[in-house]
């Protein structure tokens, strides 16, 4: 009987499958169509190209802002780089503050929210379409983005809310409302509300559904295709245990394993680069040559530039405002110190990790070159790759040329990165939610449950328009956030000048221990 | 001027043994203040979730209060009843480093700790707090068995 029952069930399933699939398809298609109709104009607006080019204006918005902040703060990302590392090491931390959130912890937490698919899949897309030259523009965008992070994270700490019970809430919505009020500039509260709405949507979409979806794709790629809702329920259960159940051990394990995976990823890339030492000069030649001539790629130099800038912006989130929420937990007397620390984030994320991925792909020979002309072979708008792979598969195949076991590690890395990104974004979304609806256990619980439900939806459905919309919402956060940063940047400059002069005069000095 | 002795507490029997020994030393010295130090093990290089970060200050206050209420204050009250000049301190950090730092700050003549009860893999690799203290302290250390 025990054997017959599953057989009967499977028979039922077999006979029911076509109908169920048809029905699911219909529901899926209906949701897609309805959602696309409503959100399409918004998505098109956010990702619209600048007239006459294929360059999305939102990427230009982020890069111009990063350039302005770089110049306005006197190339702070280069001048303060050494000081930032000293701060992370704890050289300037008062031993009496031991037990509070350290600069290192804030940086590590923020990084676990940004290091992820952008570094693995995004870079492969950039190099696959824009060629190795895209790497140069990606590095440049990463370096410029450091100034954006510096600005937003300084303000995040300066204007955060501290509650009587000792907890804190911070982020763009707080510096928009409090900073604008302090300056006597109207509109701060409206910006804060708009930002919060986009932040919630971005958290549920790009920070949740997209991650769950990609994690499911990875697992299905290894164990074979199976219904996404199973992955979704599993992930939602773990996320629920962490964010609702407060099972900190799971979060702690993840938070420990994720940096380990990051180090393993960079370490493996370095070994591959060392083994192929003789090709590094050639690879950099390809990067520089491709960056300025765009040789052999569709769209030439501009194509490489667009891809590099776009993927850097998508990966490090500089100017989006999410990092300002993560960094605002640090209890420091000098908000600017958290700005210094945060500027290391795009450096690690984009300049180091993304560049490693790009170099390994370039050196691996996965991008096919025409031996006669020496140019890359094009397949439509992208470069022809060995085995016709792209995205995560391209990165995976490139690393496999050095270590055949690496694709398995990469799957685990992608799943863990997806999970840690979800945990981080659940917090960003929660802070935006509580800003709108007020702090309180019930209010928080409602958002957390909604978040978990969206994990299942994200893994189960392939709702393209929903993902497009959530990506658009994340970048819409940047429109609101950067507008506020332009208004508030003189406050950051005053902080910077005050701190720098006190650092030079010796008023601020290292704690040498004894 | 009275001398100062830093005594490491850990809320277990070994902490109590350290206090007993420090009492004998204090009685021999005569004018001596016993500073009871409880260290909440904490590293600035650990990894936390954003929510843990946001609640960290609150948790720290709770940890300090708990250590004071459960371990330090009862020990200080006991010593005061016996007529010793004493006070308690709770700090976060690495046990060995923190005991050493408090001793240097207070210009203590000695640190008294009991032999650590921690065994296992981690202490075999990295050494116990007591071993680290003995190896690195710039203040004389007495380890009570």
Topology overview:
The complex is a heterodimer of chains A (514) and B (145).
Chain A: H1 4-46, H2 57-72, H3 76-79, H4 81-89, H5 103-114, H6 117-130, H7 133-158, E1 161-162, E2 168-169, H8 172-183, H9 188-223, H10 228-243, H11 248-275, H12 277-293, H13 300-316, H14 322-327, H15 335-342, H16 344-364, E3 378-379, E4 382-383, H17 392-400, H18 406-437, H19 441-460, H20 464-505
Antiparallel strand pairs in A: 1-2, 3-4
Chain B: E1 3-9, H1 13-29, E2 32-41, H2 50-81, E3 85-93, H3 95-105, E4 110-114, H4 121-126, H5 129-136, E5 141-144
Parallel strand pairs in B: 1-2, 1-4, 2-3, 4-5
Helix pairs in contact in B: 3-5
Features of the shown structure:
heterodimer, A: 514 residues, mainly alpha, Amino acid/polyamine transporter I, two-stranded antiparallel ribbon, two-stranded antiparallel sheet, 75% helix, disordered N terminus, B: 145 residues, alpha/beta, Rossmann fold, 5 strands
3D structure, described in words:
Chain A is mostly helical and 514 residues long. Chain A has helices at 4-46, 57-72, 76-79, 81-89, 103-114, 117-130, 133-158, 172-183, 188-223, 228-243, 248-275, 277-293, 300-316, 322-327, 335-342, 344-364, 392-400, 406-437, 441-460, 464-505, and strands at residues 161-162, 168-169, 378-379, 382-383. Chain A has one domain (93-505): Amino acid/polyamine transporter I (Up-down Bundle). In chain A, 75% of the residues lie in helices and 2% in strands. Chain A has a two-stranded antiparallel sheet with strand order 1-2. In chain A, strands 3-4 form a two-stranded antiparallel ribbon. In chain A, strand 3 (378-379) and strand 4 (382-383) form a beta hairpin. The relative contact order of chain A is 0.20. Chain B has five helices and five strands, in the order E-H-E-H-E-H-E-H-H-E. In chain B, strands 3-2-1-4-5 form a five-stranded parallel beta sheet, sandwiched between helices. In chain B, strand 1, helix 1 and strand 2 (32-41) form a beta-alpha-beta unit. Chain B has one domain (3-144): Rossmann fold. The A-B interface holds A 90, 93, 95, 98-106, 108-109, 112-113, 165-169, 242-243, 248, 251-252, 255-256, 258-259, 325-326, 329-331, 423-424, 427-428, 430, 513-514 and B 40, 42, 44-58, 60-61, 63-64, 91-93, 98, 101, 104-105, 138.
């Amino acid at each position: 009987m025990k054997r017959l029952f599953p057989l009967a069930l499977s028979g039922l399933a077999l006979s029911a499958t076509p109908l169920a699939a048809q029905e699911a398809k219909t529901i899926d298609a209906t949701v897609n169509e309805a959602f696309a109709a409503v959100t399409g104009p918004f998505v098109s607006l956010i990702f619209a190209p600048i007239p006459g080019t294929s360059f999305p204006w939102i990427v230009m918005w982020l890069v111009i802002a990063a350039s302005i902040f770089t110049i306005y703060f006197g190339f702070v990302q280069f001048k303060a780089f050494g000081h930032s590392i000293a701060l992370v090491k704890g050289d300037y931390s008062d031993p009496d503050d031991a037990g509070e959130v350290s600069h290192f912890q804030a940086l590590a937490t923020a990084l676990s929210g940004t290091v992820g698919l952008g570094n693995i899949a995004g870079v492969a897309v950039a190099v696959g379409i824009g060629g190795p030259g895209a790497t140069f523009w990606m590095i440049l965008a990463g370096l410029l983005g450091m100034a954006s992070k510096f600005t937003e994270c300084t303000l995040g700490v300066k204007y955060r809310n501290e509650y009587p019970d000792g907890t804190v809430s911070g982020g763009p919505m707080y510096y928009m409302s409090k900073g604008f009020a302090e300056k006597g500039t109207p509109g701060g509260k409206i910006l804060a509300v708009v930002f919060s709405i986009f932040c919630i949507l971005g958290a549920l979409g790009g920070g949740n559904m997209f991650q769950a979806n990609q994690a499911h794709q990875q697992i299905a790629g290894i164990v074979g295709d199976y219904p996404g809702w199973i992955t979704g329920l599993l992930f939602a259960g773990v996320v629920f245990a962490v964010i609702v159940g407060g099972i900190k051990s799971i979060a702690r394990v993840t938070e420990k394993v994720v940096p380990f995976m990051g180090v393993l990823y960079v370490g493996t890339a370095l070994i591959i680069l060392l083994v192929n030492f003789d090709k590094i000069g050639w690879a950099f030649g390809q990067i520089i040559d491709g960056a300025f001539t765009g040789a052999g790629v569709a769209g030439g130099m501009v194509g490489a530039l667009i891809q590099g800038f776009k993927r850097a912006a998508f990966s490090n989130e500089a100017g989006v405002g999410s990092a300002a929420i993560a960094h605002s937990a640090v209890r420091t007397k000098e908000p600017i110190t958290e700005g210094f620390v945060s500027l290391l984030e795009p450096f690690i994320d984009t300049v180091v990790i993304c560049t490693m991925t790009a170099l390994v792909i370039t050196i691996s020979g996965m991008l096919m070159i025409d031996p006669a002309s020496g140019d890359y072979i094009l397949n439509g708008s992208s470069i022809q790759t060995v085995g016709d792979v792209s995205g995560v598969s391209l990165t995976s195949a490139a690393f496999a040329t050095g270590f055949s076991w690496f694709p398995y590690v990469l799957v685990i890395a992608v799943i863990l990165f997806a999970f840690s990104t979800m945990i981080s974004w659940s917090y960003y979304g929660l802070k935006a939610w509580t800003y709108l609806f007020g702090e309180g256990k019930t209010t928080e619980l409602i958002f957390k449950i909604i978040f978990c439900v969206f994990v299942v939806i994200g893994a189960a459905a392939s709702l393209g328009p929903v993902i497009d919309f959530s990506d658009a919402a994340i970048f819409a956060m940047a429109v609101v956030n950067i507008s506020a940063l332009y208004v508030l940047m003189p406050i950051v400059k005053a902080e910077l000048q005050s701190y720098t002069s006190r650092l030079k005069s010796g008023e601020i000095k290292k704690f040498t221990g004894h | 001027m009275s001398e100062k002795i830093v005594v490491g507490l850990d809320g277990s029997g070994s902490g109590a043994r350290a206090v007993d020994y420090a009492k004998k030393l204090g009685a021999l010295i005569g004018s001596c203040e016993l500073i009871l130090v409880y260290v909440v093990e904490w590293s600035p290089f650990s990894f936390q979730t954003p929510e843990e970060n946001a609640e960290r200050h609150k948790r720290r206050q709770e940890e300090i209060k708990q250590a004071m209420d459960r371990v330090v204050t009862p020990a200080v009250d006991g010593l005061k009843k016996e007529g010793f000049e004493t006070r308690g301190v709770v700090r976060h950090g690495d046990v060995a480093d923190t005991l050493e730092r408090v001793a240097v700050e207070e210009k203590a003549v000695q640190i008294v700790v009991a032999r650590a009860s921690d065994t296992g893999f981690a202490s075999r690799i990295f050494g116990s707090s007591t071993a680290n203290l003995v190896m690195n302290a710039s203040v004389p250390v007495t380890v009570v068995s």
